[in-house]
Design goal:
Layout (H helix, E strand, L loop, with lengths): L2 H18 L6 E5 L2 H11 L3 E5 L14 H9 L2 E4 L8 H8 L5 E3 H5 L22 H4 L2 H12 L4 H26 L8 E6 L3 H7 L2 E6 L9 H13 L4 E5 L5 H12 L5 E6 L14 H15 L12 H6 L6
Parallel strand pairs: 1-2, 1-3, 3-4, 5-6, 7-8
Helix pairs in contact: 2-7, 2-8, 7-8, 8-12, 10-11
Length: 324
């Protein structure tokens, strides 16, 4: 046998081995909201190709699935949605897809019912669980398990990603708590367009008051404006907040009504409630969403944001966010 043929004989098994051990493509994952998509991207890493149906400024309570959404869902290998009726009518579509595609309602699958906030409306359960970083972190193992189920060869990387990201959310939770505590106690009240911040208030020690209810499907009435105006005046609230997914007219109506009665109140900033910011920005990440919200709230209500913990320095450096 010539030397060339001998080398080909040795290389052939290696070539076959390379073919059998070739990495699988990233799992095609579709989520409803960005707050799931970003966490899923962090956990899945290079083993997942994650996209969200609902982008910045989109209100999930009012969302209706388009033909394009259905086509996107049809191409998915797995689907993640929040649950507890957050996605409104889209929930019916997702239930049908669950019969043919692995589909996970991450909130009911991850978070103990004892931690939920019940409400007296059509929802029954307040679905805005991502407002408490310690609660939302509980979806991480659920997402990791779902990824490992379809990409078992990626398990080591997925578990490592999950542990690292869980540490970041733990640090974020502590930072928010410390920052909110700097607001003078008498000014520790968060007035927003709708009741999306109850978990935030409970977790971080700030009273919350929404002009509208849990869902944005209901119309805000004159009585709601009057009620909130009275709260703002009696509590001498210095700032109220608009939301990225809701028309600011109701908040402006409260500001105008309070001003007519001699109380000056300003807009403290725009908060992310039911959607994150634009992709490619710090606000387009889950950590950045809560970080931006907290800075607006703390600074407008008379507090001072704490220095970011070391665990979040990598995130801050990536987005050029000051750590102190």
């Amino acid at each position: 046998m010539t030397r060339g043929k001998r080398m080909l004989g040795l290389l052939a098994p290696l070539a076959l081995s390379g073919q059998t051990m070739a990495a699988e493509p990233p799992v095609t994952t579709v989520t409803t909201i960005g707050m799931i998509a970003d966490v899923a991207s962090e956990v899945g890493g290079e083993c997942a190709d994650v996209s969200a149906i609902m982008g910045p400024g989109v209100d999930p309570h009012l969302y209706q699935a388009s033909a394009r959404d259905v086509a996107t869902l049809q191409q998915a290998e797995q689907i993640f949605y929040s649950g507890y009726s957050l996605e409104g009518q889209l929930g019916n579509v997702l239930e049908r897809f669950a019969e043919i595609t692995p589909t996970v309602a991450v909130a009911p699958s991850s978070i103990d019912t004892a931690s939920l906030i019940t409400v007296q409306d059509v929802y029954g359960i307040d679905p805005h669980l991502w407002m408490d970083a310690s609660l939302w972190a509980q979806i991480i193992p659920t997402l990791a398990d779902a990824f490992v189920e379809v990409r078992p060869d990626c398990e080591a990387d997925i578990r490592a990603n999950a542990d690292a990201y869980a540490s970041q959310l733990e640090a974020l939770h502590g930072w928010i708590e410390e920052s909110i505590a700097t607001i003078p106690e008498e000014q520790r009240i968060l007035v927003t367009a709708h009741d999306a911040f109850n978990y935030y208030g409970r977790a971080y020690g700030i009273e919350v008051a929404g002009i509208q209810g849990i869902s944005t499907e209901t119309e805000t009435g004159v009585a709601d404006i009057r009620r909130m105006t009275q709260v703002v005046i009696e509590r001498e609230v210095p700032a109220v907040f608009i939301e990225s997914t809701i028309n600011p007219r109701t908040v402006q109506a409260v500001i105008d009504a309070a001003r007519e009665k001699g109380h000056e109140v300003e807009i403290g900033g725009q908060l992310y409630s039911d959607a994150m910011g634009e992709a490619g920005t710090a606000g387009g990440t889950y950590i950045g969403m809560l970080h931006a919200n907290t800075r607006h709230i703390v600074e407008a209500l008379g507090g001072e944001p704490a220095a970011l913990p070391e665990t979040l320095e990598g995130w801050a450096e990536r987005w050029e966010i000051p750590t102190s």
